[in-house]
């Protein structure tokens, strides 16, 4: 066991504070790595503020983790000391259920994936995330970061990247497809870049036109304010696919009407409270509403390789760990362009 510095939440209302945590001894199948960067995902905030219930304090958040391998177990075959690696939202799963066998470990139901934090590992110990100096993870749940991706920009891809890549692939975003992205935040801005790289025509639906210049620079062909009622009149029936990345409740009926016949709106944002959908909004136009959870290990590697090949990287603001609480406030105020990434060197 080793002791490492970290930042933890101790209750839903207190700011995160410095602490120390232990990491397990490197087992035969484990990879130990120094964490260089950790992204701040809105899910970290939902979790530590108790909005999803069930947080087990103290919680060290962080599931967008990038770093460099410092030790490997005796049976490890895929990684060596010095490799650039990452870890996303989960660090283990049963490996036996149909989903695990199909490489969709995020949908493991036996009893479920082991989250990178706020979960319990196979050793019975609580898992703690990336706002820390180092971590030990089974090699099967570690990703390789391609040389073309700097570690700070690779970090957000481990959640924001795969969460948007997976549904874009699943619902065939590509040439000739009209894709809308609701919310230009951490997930949303990566979704725009990925969908553009896949060849789709992309529209951003944001609360205002404040970030329009950025959205168009990222490759969107159209950018509309959802505060303007004309947006919903003019874009009616326009889209094959809508990705909703908003962390708060929306009036989904208005957005469903923007879908073409057989179009799909995919929920990626997970707000605290349920959202109601009138049946008619689905029935007319045979529209679908779906959800999607991050992505499996193989698809996450595919996404990283795709980003390296197509030069897709997030726009980030690198911060020191003592700025985490202000960063949380800024994320909540939609004042993020477009992902905060913690330089964890003070924690090593
Ligand atoms: P984020 O950076 O805060 O982005 C969310 C964006 O939503 C904001 O930038 C803002 O964009 C828009 N928004 C915020 N409040 C709004 C409101 N009241 N009304 C309308 N629009 C609003 O968050 P994120 O890290 O991208 O995460 C987004 C959501 O996805 C969170 O709920 C998170 O938990 C969830 N998530 C899900 C998965 C999954 O596997 N499904 C994975 C990761 C995260 P504009 O300013 O452009 O309007
Ligand atoms: Zn996340
Ligand atoms: Zn499983």
From TrEMBL:
One of its GO terms (molecular function) is alcohol dehydrogenase (NADP+) activity. Its EC number is 1.1.1.2. Pfam families: ADH_N (PF08240), ADH_zinc_N (PF00107). Its cofactor is Zn(2+). InterPro entries: ADH-like_C (IPR013149), ADH-like_N (IPR013154), ADH_Zn_CS (IPR002328), CAD-like (IPR047109), ER (IPR020843), GroES-like_sf (IPR011032), NAD(P)-bd_dom_sf (IPR036291). It is an enzyme of class 1 (oxidoreductase). SMART domains: PKS_ER. Prefers aldehydes over alcohols. PANTHER family: ALDEHYDE REDUCTASE. This is alcohol dehydrogenase (NADP(+)).
């Amino acid at each position: 066991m080793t002791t490492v510095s970290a930042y933890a939440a101790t209750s839903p209302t207190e700011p995160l504070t410095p602490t120390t945590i232990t990491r397990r001894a490197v087992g035969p199948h484990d990879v130990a790595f120094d964490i260089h960067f950790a992204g701040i995902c809105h899910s970290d905030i939902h979790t530590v503020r108790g909005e999803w219930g069930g947080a087990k304090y103290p919680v060290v958040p962080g599931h967008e983790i990038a770093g460099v391998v410092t030790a490997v177990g005796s049976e490890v075959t895929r990684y060596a000391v010095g490799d650039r690696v990452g870890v996303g939202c989960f660090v283990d799963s049963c490996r036996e259920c149909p989903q695990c066998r199909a490489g969709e470990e995020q949908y493991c139901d036996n009893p479920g994936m082991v989250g990178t934090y706020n979960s319990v590992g196979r050793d019975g110990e609580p898992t703690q995330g990336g706002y820390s100096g180092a971590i030990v993870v089974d090699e099967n749940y570690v990703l390789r970061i391609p040389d073309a991706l700097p570690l700070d920009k690779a970090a957000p891809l481990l959640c924001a990247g795969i969460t948007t890549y997976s549904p874009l692939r699943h619902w065939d975003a590509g040439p000739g497809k009209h894709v809308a992205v609701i919310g230009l935040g951490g997930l949303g801005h990566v979704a725009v870049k990925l969908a553009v790289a896949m060849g789709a025509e992309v529209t951003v639906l944001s609360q205002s036109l404040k970030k329009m210049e950025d959205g168009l620079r990222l490759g969107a062909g159209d950018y509309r304010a959802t505060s303007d009622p004309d947006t919903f009149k003019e874009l009616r029936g326009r889209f094959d696919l809508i990705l909703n990345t908003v962390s708060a409740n929306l009036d989904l009926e208005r957005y469903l009407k923007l879908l073409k016949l057989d179009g799909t709106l995919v929920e990626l944002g997970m707000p605290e409270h349920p959202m109601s959908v009138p049946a008619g909004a689905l029935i007319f136009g045979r529209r679908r509403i779906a959800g999607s959870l991050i992505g499996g290990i193989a698809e996450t590697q595919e996404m990283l390789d795709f980003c390296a090949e197509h030069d897709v990287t997030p726009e980030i603001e690198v911060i020191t760990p003592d700025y985490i609480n202000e960063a949380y406030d800024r994320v909540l105020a939609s004042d993020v362009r477009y992902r905060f990434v913690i330089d964890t060197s003070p924690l090593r």
